[in-house]
Write a structure and sequence with these properties.
Elements lengths: L4 H15 L3 H8 L3 H28 L4 H18 L7 E2 L5 H32 L3 H4 L4 H18 L1 H5 L11 H10 L6 H20 L5 H16 L6 H5 L16 H33 L5 H17 L6 E2 L1 H9 L6 H21 L4 H15 L2 H10 L1 H16 L2 H23 L1 E4 L27 E7 L4 H11 L8 E8 L5 H16 L3 E5 L3 H9 L7 E4 L2 H11 L1 H5 L9
Parallel strand pairs: 4-5, 5-6, 6-7
Antiparallel strand pairs: 1-2, 3-4
Helix pairs in contact: 3-4, 3-11, 3-15, 3-16, 3-17, 4-14, 4-16, 5-13, 5-14, 7-17, 7-19, 7-20, 10-11, 10-17, 13-14, 13-15, 18-19, 19-20, 20-21, 21-22
């Protein structure tokens, strides 16, 4: 047979290009007109209005300057939409990263954070090119709900100082159990003006959400708080008093310190950034798909997220990921494609260039109020209620992930939660797999129409032949119980038929159990038949030595019985065939 390797390689290259083609190119190929641009411009402006206060609030809560939050939203948001595999994804700084970012800043400084962001971008690009995006979706749902709720609690606790206007005698500790006693000791230093501003900000956002849901509640609340602070000269901390305002230009791109020692120091943090970023961005893309009926390309999206993190680091920003709230806002605002996300970044840039002096009057208490709303929205209350009611397994995974996130570490919470979820899945799958024998204690009558099919309990009435049917996945979780049943081969049997017609999957442990069964049958002179096995399962069994003539393969139990009759004419002459139902 002639194989054109050049044509085959060209086909692979073409498919690779299609899988990693940005959705922007797809949208332009479909045709892009002025009406589409108008829709994207309106959606981009709407999202930018939402992203402006959020980007600054998240940056401040993470322990960096508000300008870095804007750089992240501008550069990262533009690249996510330009290169991404989702039509509607909006990238930028996310509340889920606050805990990780603040930890890295405390341990390695802002320079270490930028380097970790740069490295996480490289990791994400590699994950996408290696097509690992599909596996990221295997994170159990209770794990995502648990760590998101845990992060929300930590974000709320981190904003108590600014919400109440507290004055601390020392630096605010990161761990929750160390933070709360210190905040409690500082309760007498509450600033009434800060408390009033934060409470008013929260009340304004909540009220506008119900009264005017299409209005930019967060931006309006922050603008009112800034105007009140400037007009009455309130004694509260502001962006100007703490950070000196924000610059009116984006800095020039600069490579971070790529020394080997620095890379080793921040590599674990970079891996955590990449893992959390992949989970958040793909989860956001799935939400957008559900709202629009479209389908994203997960590996292309990971490459775009990686490029966005690299770009953000070059301009002094930090971690970029897909953001569910802003992506949903983009969809509801009527976006047509990725141009909306790109314009959102352009509008953010214009806001920074034109309104930078006004940002100095924004009180930190108002931004803390914004983050209180964000943390409340992050807690998926209906999902938590369902998981708690669904049973002890999902509830345990949820609780373990939640408490580990709060009291230990986010990466540890995800790993432990994933491990518990996997064990729970294995347990459930093993319970769903069973072995049925051909000979019940009392046979049940059945109409003729129900006697057909790949297996019937009455098809082997000869006591010298035993038939077992495996139903469910034959994998390591069920191998022990299945093996204990199959291992009961009596010396009185002449043939053993194992029906695989209801087995969708066989792993190496299951194949090994069958290999041991074949050896035992051969030693005892028992003829082993495997029936109903799919081509993939048959190849797996043959790889482990279950080959003819030691093992016979047949498409059905009837075919195996017929083959046994042909091999033993004397057995057939005694009426073996007549005992089977017709």
């Amino acid at each position: 047979m002639y194989v054109d390797f050049g044509e085959r390689d060209a086909g692979k290259a073409a498919r690779f290009g299609q899988l990693f083609m940005p959705k922007l190119a797809t949208v332009f190929k479909e045709g892009y007109g002025l009406a589409h641009l108008r829709a994207d411009a309106i959606a981009g402006l709407t999202v930018a209005i939402v992203a402006l206060p959020l980007s600054m609030a998240i940056a401040i809560a993470a322990g960096v300057s508000p300008a870095q939050g804007l750089y992240t939203g501008i550069v990262g948001g533009f690249l996510v939409s330009l290169l991404g595999g989702s039509r509607f994804q909006i990238g930028g700084p996310a509340g889920a990263f606050i805990v990780l970012v603040s930890t890295v800043v405390a341990a390695h400084g802002v320079e270490g954070l930028i380097l970790a962001t740069f490295l996480s971008g490289l990791i994400l690009v590699a994950m996408g090119l290696l097509r690992l995006g599909t596996f990221i979706k295997f994170i159990p749902f209770p794990v995502t709900v648990g760590f998101t709720a845990g992060i929300a609690v930590i974000i709320f606790a981190s904003q108590l100082k600014e919400l109440l206007g507290l004055t601390l005698s020392a630096g605010e500790p990161g761990p929750l159990m160390e933070k709360l006693p210190m905040l409690g000791a500082a309760a007498p230093t509450i600033t009434p003006a800060a408390l009033a501003l934060s409470a008013t900000t929260i009340a304004t956002i909540v009220a506008l959400k119900f009264a005017r849901p299409h209005w930019p509640g967060m931006l309006i609340a922050v603008a009112v708080a800034a105007a009140t602070t400037a007009g009455f000269d309130l004694p509260v901390a502001t962006i100007g008093s703490k950070f000196g305002g924000i610059p009116s230009a984006v800095p020039s791109p600069t490579l971070p310190d790529l020394s080997f020692e620095r890379i080793l120091a921040v590599l674990p943090a970079a891996a955590s950034f990449a893992l959390l970023g992949a989970i958040e961005s793909l989860l956001s893309a799935v939400v957008a798909d559900g709202m629009t009926g479209r389908r994203h390309r997960s590996n292309c999206e990971l490459v775009a997220q990686g490029a966005a993190n690299i770009g953000s680091a070059l301009f002094g920003g930090f971690c970029v990921t897909g953001t569910i709230a802003r992506t949903a806002t983009n969809v509801r605002a009527g976006a047509h494609g990725p141009v909306a996300g790109m314009l959102h970044a352009v509008f953010l840039l214009l806001f920074m260039l034109l309104a930078a002096p006004l940002a100095a009057y924004i009180p930190l208490a108002a931004l803390a109020g914004v983050l209180v709303i964000v943390s409340w929205n992050m807690i998926e209350r209906p999902a938590i209620a369902v998981l708690v009611r669904s049973g002890w397994g999902d509830a345990t995974v949820l609780a373990a992930t939640f408490f580990l996130t709060i009291f230990r570490d986010l990466s540890e919470a995800i790993v432990v939660g994933f491990a518990l979820g996997s064990v729970l899945f294995i347990h459930r799958m093993s319970e769903a797999t069973e072995v049925q024998s051909h000979r019940p204690f009392v046979g049940e009558d059945a109409p003729d129409a129900e006697e057909g099919g790949p297996y019937d309990e009455l098809r082997s009435s000869d006591p010298q032949i035993v038939v077992y049917r495996i139903a469910g996945a034959f994998f390591f979780g069920a191998a022990a119980s299945i093996g204990s049943v199959l291992d009961r081969i009596s010396d009185g049997y002449k043939a053993l038929i194992v029906d695989f017609s209801a087995v969708p999957f066989l792993d190496s442990t299951g194949a090994n159990v069958m290999e041991g069964l074949a050896h035992k049958a051969q030693r005892r002179g028992v003829r082993l038949f495997v029936t109903g096995a799919s081509p993939e399962i048959r190849r797996a069994l043959q790889l482990y030595g279950l080959v003819s003539p030691q093992v016979g393969y047949a498409s059905s139990v009837d075919d195996a019985l017929a083959e046994y009759d042909e091999m033993h004419p004397d057995h057939r002459a005694r009426g073996r065939g007549a005992t089977r139902p017709t």
